[in-house]
Design a protein that fits this description.
The chain is of the alpha+beta class and 192 residues long. It is built from five helices and six strands, in the order ααββαααββββ. It is 22% helix and 29% strand. A six-stranded antiparallel beta sheet has the order 2-1-5-4-3-6, with helices on both faces. It is globular and about 45 Å long. The C terminus is likely disordered.
C-alpha cells in the first residue's frame, strides 16, 4: 500500500500531493516554494513551523484559526514551549521531533482527551521542508478535527492530564520519491 492510501482525510491527502508536487528531487521541497495562497481552502487548519536545530525548538510561523482554537492560544511567532504547557507540549514536541530530526513525513489519526473537555478526534499530517536538502528547516502541517471546536470547555490546558488512544501513525522517509509525484501537475484545490 502506498503512503497516500493510508491518509483517510481528503484535505490532508491533498496537502500531501501538493507537497509532492513541490519536490524537484528526492529531497523535501524548500519553504520558499510553498505558497499558502495556492491551498487557500486549507488555511484555517494549516500551520508552518520553523525548526531551530541548535536549540531543538519549534516556532510557529503560520497557524490557522482552527489550529489556534484547538490549543486555545495565539501561536504566530511563538515557540512551541512558550505557546503550550505540559503535557500537551510534549505530545506535540514528540511528533515535531520525528518529522524534523528523523526527516519523516508523518500522518496520524488519534483521539485526544484533555481532562474536563470532550474527546477530540483528529487527523494530522507533518511534511518536512528543506532549503538545502541537508536538514529540515520547516514543517508544513495540517490538522483536521472531527466535531465542533466551539463545544469544548475553554479551561487552561496546563491544568489537565492527557489521554491518548486509538493512535494510528504512518511515517515515510521524506527523501523518498513516491510514484505519485510523476502524475502531479501542481497545487491548487482538488477537482471533483
Amino acid at each position: 500500500m502506498r503512503f497516500a492510501e493510508k491518509i483517510d482525510e481528503q484535505d490532508l491527502r491533498h496537502l500531501y500531493f501538493y507537497w509532492l508536487s513541490k519536490k524537484t528531487s528526492r529531497f523535501p521541497p524548500p519553504r520558499a516554494v510553498v505558497e499558502p495562497g495556492e491551498i487557500r481552502f486549507l488555511l484555517p487548519s494549516l500551520f508552518i513551523i520553523e525548526v531551530d536545530h541548535d536549540e531543538e525548538r519549534f516556532r510557529y510561523r503560520l497557524a490557522g484559526a482552527d489550529v489556534e482554537a484547538l490549543v486555545q492560544a495565539r501561536l504566530h511567532g511563538l515557540w512551541l514551549d512558550e505557546a503550550l504547557r505540559s503535557p500537551l507540549r510534549e505530545f506535540f514536541d514528540e511528533a515535531f521531533c520525528t518529522a524534523a530530526f528523523d526527516r519523516k513525513v508523518q500522518y496520524r489519526r488519534n483521539t485526544l482527551h484533555l481532562t474536563g473537555r470532550p474527546y477530540i478526534r483528529y487527523s494530522r499530517i507533518l511534511l518536512p521542508l528543506s532549503n538545502t536538502g541537508e536538514r529540515i528547516d520547516h514543517l508544513l502541517g495540517c490538522i483536521k478535527l472531527d466535531g465542533e471546536i466551539a463545544a469544548r470547555n475553554p479551561s487552561l490546558v496546563e491544568q489537565h492530564e492527557i489521554t491518548i488512544s486509538d493512535v494510528a501513525t504512518f511515517e515515510l522517509d521524506a527523501y523518498e520519491m513516491p510514484e505519485e509525484i510523476r502524475r502531479l501537475s501542481g497545487g491548487g484545490q482538488p477537482t471533483q
